User: What shape does this take?
Amino acid sequence: MAQNLFYFLTFLTLLSAVMVVFSKNPIHSVLYLILTFFTISGHYVLLNAQFLAAVNIIVYAGAIMVLFLFVIMFLNLKKESEVHKPNLAKVAAVIAGGVLLVIFVAVFRKATFLPVDETNFNSQIGMVKTLGQILYKDFLVPFELVSVLFLSAMVGAVMLGKKEEGERNTF
Amino acid sequence: MKEVPEILQQIPQNYYVLLSSTIFIIGVIGVLTRRNALIIFMSVELMLNAVNLLLTTFSAYRSDPTGQVFVFFIMAVAAAEVAVGLAIIVMMYRYMRSIDVGILDRLKF
Assistant: This one.
């Protein structure tokens, strides 16, 4: 049961990831990316990481993808307007990526990982309670620094998006 | 509490590692083949998610929550990065009426 679910989710993840790259229309790419994020959340649930599954859906599929969709609709891109790279460059890129994939597969196929430690195993590590305690005990300083990072990112985004005085091009 | 979930017993860790590497490679190919800045940005998100999945896998199989905390921080940084990156793309469109990265070669001269 769980095995079939894993294979189904894997198939869906890979299919939608490929469609993100090869869709002609950017809106379709964004929708396939949302599908990819949902299937990755499914993988998180399978791995017993409920907190990450929820955060993945809220942050990625919710906030980030809405930003992407917003910008695409804002920019009013026509799908014919994209200039494609020459075919030689595309083939070279796919070959380069494929060689990297072959290297990864060759390395990891025979790799042996440490077996699951059944005596000290705790299946509750992905829950909100455990992660929250660790986040506020051991990782408190990075957690607070992230808020500073968000503040500076917000300031940066506003500064970049603001129209400058005397700028001639407008939407 | 103590028993290992059946998914961790039935699916070898290698499968998750291979899945993450494949998603990562798809992202690499997307960055290399496309010229639309938004699609390149989405491919980078795909690569980030591959790494997140890998960290979660090791965290789940080793029963060590630190990896999942790290994934949480990666997601936070990714959210900040997307906000700034999309602002840059909007600015680029405003100046050049295009988000084709092929015309962004002015630093060459």
Remarks:
- Chain A has a mean pLDDT of 88.
- Residues 50-75 of chain A form the longest helix (26 residues).
- DSSP finds six helices and no strands in chain A.
- Residues 124-162 of chain A form one domain.
